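task queued by scheduler; priority normal; single chain, no ligands, no partner chains; default sampling; output format set to structure tokens
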Amino acid sequence: MQDGTDEIIKTELYAEIETLQNQYRTIKEYLSGKEYDSLEIIGTLRAFRDNLSKISAHILSLYTLKGQKTKITWDSLLTNIDNALETLQTSPRSKPRPTIQLALNISEPKIEEVMSYLSTLKETLQ
């Protein structure tokens, strides 16, 4: 049973990391100046946050199944994304780009570090 559950979690985690990487690419393109509809980029940021939360749960499950402890260190990133989304929702006239940029810049660890970790993890799941 544990082996089957372990494989299911790994397969789901791999697919979710891949989805997250695609969302991250879109966010990075937007922050680099590529134009996207404001609602589309806000939706992408919200989906990124939701998927990162799901991935966190899968990582914790995977480590628990292996009898190991781990700590998810990107709570600050999730909180800052939540704050940015709240700001954008309550201030519809504000421009998403600076709000998103600020949220990602003040997070520790940085979004790039989280994505690097997840990319490495994805390679080990193959």
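post-processing summary
- The chain has one domain: 2-125.
- Residues 11 and 35 are 33 Å apart (CA to CA).
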